[in-house]
Design goal:
It is built from 7 helices and no strands. Helix 3 packs across helix 7 and helix 5 runs parallel beside helix 7. By secondary structure, the chain is mostly helical.
Length: about 160
């Protein structure tokens, strides 16, 4: 980022602007190409890792010596009498943070994908738009964010290795 003094800023702001639609289209294309050259933001990578992180194993640790021996030998454990507990739900703040990052990434990918792919991925972008407009319940948020992350990764994969 460059610092600009008051005189230069005043001169830049007093310049006339163009109402020419062709010039505006060329500017929009240039900005989109510039966004495409920037690559994937770091917060998107962190959010993808958070969404796709495996759930913690809800089964209790083996509490008997025989269970440890069976596990080391690769044999199945005897059936438990109590059902496993479901994985803990994500907090509302974490879900909102990941969803916001995914929404920003969707807008960015829709703008940039035309410059990074040889063909326009209509189905993949349609899925991204559908997921962006979906509002899951708190119980469905983990599965929703995983589907959203996989859809984003599919578009990034189509964009190639330099994305």
């Amino acid at each position: 980022m460059a610092a600009v003094d008051q005189a230069t800023a005043a001169a830049l702001l007093s310049r006339p602007f163009s109402a020419d639609h062709e010039a505006m289209r060329m500017l929009a294309v240039s900005l989109s190409r510039s966004l495409a050259a920037d690559g994937i933001p770091g917060d998107l990578i962190d959010a993808l890792e958070d969404a796709l992180r495996p759930e913690p194993d809800p089964s209790p640790a083996p509490d008997r010596k025989l269970d440890g021996l069976l596990i080391r030998l690769g044999l199945p454990l005897p059936p438990r009498h109590h059902p496993p507990k479901p994985a803990p739900a994500w907090s509302e703040e974490e879900t909102a943070r990941i969803t916001a990052v995914f929404h920003r990434a969707t807008v960015l990918l829709i703008r940039v994908v035309q410059w990074r792919t040889t063909w326009y991925p209509t189905e993949e972008l349609r899925l991204l738009r559908l997921l962006r407009d979906e509002h899951p319940t708190p119980e469905e948020s983990r599965a929703y964010l995983r589907r959203y992350a996989l859809a984003i990764l599919a578009v990034i994969d189509l964009m190639g290795n330099d994305a």
